[in-house]
Amino acid sequence: MPDDILISILERVDLLYATRTCVLSKRWRNLHRFLPNVSLNCYLLVGPHCPETYRFMNYPFLMINSLDRFLRLRSGSKIRSFRLTCCLKEPLTERFERCIYFLGRLGVEELSLNCCCDRSWTYTKFYFSCQLLSEMPLLKDFKLGFCYLQPSLRIQSNSLQSLSLEYVTLCPGAIECVLSNCLRLDCLKINYCKCPSKLSICGPDLKLKSVYLSPPTGLSLE
Amino acid sequence: MAAETGTPTTLTLKSNDDELFSVAESAAILSVTIRNMVEDGCAGGVIPLDNVDGKTLASVITYMNGISAIPADEEKKKSYRDKFLSDKDFETLADMVLAANYLNMSCLMDAVSAKIAQVMEKKSVGWVRRKFGIENDYTPEEEAAVKEEHKWTFEGVETDDDN
């Protein structure tokens, strides 16, 4: 069978199994690296020991090392959609930013990022800076969960059309930063987020067609 | 085209082992490959399909007729596809995915890929090698190294090797 058919089959099996096919033969060794849609979690990155491993200091480093290695192995093959659900921690911020940079280079168009795989969120603080949107020029659809969204001074032009935030703490100015820099944004969802006392959804040239808020918070629409 | 005269046009398809099949044009053009030939006016005589054998082509035509008889109802089409593929063995599925790819029939291609994925998912390395006709060209040392590198994917795996 030609490679593209094998990839279309592998796309439909669980990533763990798809990866395992690398032992079949030399030809299969790299096939799984061409899957355009990737879904990763703690289990896939550090094995079945999360969240137990989590108690050990080295967990975040094991995780980010795996993620980094995974993305490096993918260089040269596009990742269209990427889902990551894993416990990110603050000391990783810089290395995580490199991973986002790799993802951007791999042409990611859909990104779903849940920075927590268990209930530990209440005591983790992971900051996602709006600046990172500049690293992913093709990103259209972004879902972010369980972290802090931080504004940044300037974001380079990007293609973001849809942003969905769930269980995110919005730092003051974060939404304003997104709205004034993501000029193609047409859908914004804010669910179960901690918002600053005043949140204004306004801008000179908004393309927003839909805004979802749940539960509704004190919001000024201008 | 015959639509003007009211009688459905029939196409004749020829497999690579010289079997001939008649099929309604409206069903056959589910294949983009065939549709392009019809649109280019190459469908006057017999359409040769060099990459599909008679047994597989018969199956594909059964599918074309079955699915095109269902009105636009995705639920019903899906259940037809599930039923159509439920009794096919691995070799037939493998032939069909190649045929669907050659004929450029995305709905059949998706359904058969998903079915193959479902069949192979819990199987052992040996089973997959056997069924896909894969020759293991790793040396034992290389295979051990690749396995070690991806050790985590083999933890807690139970496989079954039934046929």
From TrEMBL, chain A:
Residues 1-31 form the F-box domain. Residues 71-199 form the At1g61320/AtMIF1 LRR domain. It holds the Pfam family LRR_At1g61320_AtMIF1. InterPro entries: At1g61320/At1g61330-like (IPR053772), F-box-like_dom_sf (IPR036047), F-box_dom (IPR001810), LRR_At1g61320_AtMIF1 (IPR055357). It comes from the Eukaryota. This is Uncharacterized protein. It comes from Erythranthe guttata.
Automatic annotation (TrEMBL), chain B:
It comes from the Eukaryota. GO terms for cellular component: cytoplasm; nucleus. Pathway: Protein modification; protein ubiquitination. One of its GO terms (biological process) is SCF-dependent proteasomal ubiquitin-dependent protein catabolic process. Keywords: Ubl conjugation pathway. InterPro entries: SKP1 (IPR016897), SKP1-like (IPR001232), SKP1-like_dim_sf (IPR036296), SKP1/BTB/POZ_sf (IPR011333), Skp1_comp_dimer (IPR016072), Skp1_comp_POZ (IPR016073). Gene3D superfamilies: Potassium Channel Kv1.1, Chain A (3.30.710.10). GO terms for molecular function: cullin family protein binding. PANTHER family: SKP1 (PTHR11165). Part of a SCF (SKP1-cullin-F-box) protein ligase complex. Belongs to the SKP1 family. This is SKP1-like protein. The lineage of its organism: Eukaryota, Viridiplantae, Streptophyta, Embryophyta, Tracheophyta.
